[in-house]
Amino acid sequence: MRALRILLVVVVILGGLFVIVDRVAVNFAEGEAADRLRTSENLASTPDVSIKGFPFLTQVASGSLDEVEVGIQDYEAGTGDGAQRIRIADLRADMKGVEFSGDYSSATAQRATGSATISYDELLKTAKSEPTQVAPGVTANVVGLSDGGNGKIKVRVEATVLGAKLPEPVFVLSSVKVVDGDTVRVKADALPKFGSVSLPESRVRKITDFQQKIDGLPGGIKLDKVEAGKDGVHITVKGSGVRLVG
Questions:
Q1: Nearest CA to 114 among 68, 178, 59, 177?
Q2: Over the stretch 111-127, which tens digit does the pLDDT of each residue have?
Q3: CA distances from 28 to 4, 21, 23, 35, 145 (A)
Q4: Which Pfam family, giving just one, matches this sequence (predicted)?
Q5: Which residue, 70, 91, 113, 207, has fewest beta-carbon neighbours within 10 Å?
Q6: What's CA 91's distance to the chain center, in Å?
């Protein structure tokens, strides 16, 4: 019995040491992955990287991690024109089946899902912010975006008719969706009226409707769905064969 108790104590001690070593190793790996991701994506700050699953060391031995969560604040995404950038306030990705190379220089996830948030002020940069002539004597421009409720965007438009600015702005409820996996499109559900002036739909939509391409997301993930929220548009992202580092 005494020998059994000693054996049990040894097992408990070794188990505790294994847990400590495992947690130290995973913390080190998370820090290394975060630093490499910051460098490869040219990020302004170090992202959050969390490796899930226990034990970590057995996952390393198999060459694959069950799940890795990544969080990036204020990510500067491309817009397709090579110059303008759009800031994503909060980008998060949950990567499954992350396999890494033998020298640990690269890691790729079999699939990834996540979310991103773009503020209305940031998205407003895409709209017609400068007054544009939509008909002889009539100019208009989008001056604000906000939550319209039920997944809609409220678009605020100001207009000038025959040199006189309309006393009240025009508000339009618009639908928002993802097209082509890399573009957020905003389209008015119903066309606004600018005083008593009747305008062709095509001209009005040049002001009310707009779209923003968003590319160059980390690891090649793509936009999936989008919905308007209180603080901006909330986008779900997804991808397969997503590069984590390397």
A1: 68
A2: 999 999 999 998 888 77
A3: 36, 11, 9, 11, 43
A4: LmeA
A5: 113
A6: 4
Structure tokens at 118: 């773009």
Quick check: 28 and 233 in contact, CB under 8 A? no
110, 96 contact by CB (below 8 A): yes
Cβ–Cβ under 8 Å, residues 153 and 146: yes
| Cα-to-chain-centroid distance, residue 200 | 36
Residue 87 CB neighbour total at 10 angstroms: 14
The Cα diameter of the chain in Å comes to 100
Q: How confident is the model at residue 9 (pLDDT cuts 50, 70, 90)?
A: very low
Our measurement of the distance from residue 144's CA atom to the centroid of its chain's CA atoms, rounded to an integer in Å, reads: 21
Instruction: Tell me how far apart the terminal alpha carbons of the chain are, to the nearest angstrom.
Output: 54
Give CA separation, 207 vs 120, 141, 148, 178, 194, in Å: 17, 6, 18, 19, 12
Contacts of 166 (CB under 8 A, 6+ apart): 158, 159, 160, 194, 195
Residue-level length of the chain: 246
**In the structure encoding, which two tokens stand for residue 188, read together?**
């008015």
Distance (Å, rounded) from C-alpha 33 to C-alpha 46? 10
- Measure the CA–CA gap between 174 and 233, rounded to whole angstroms: 12
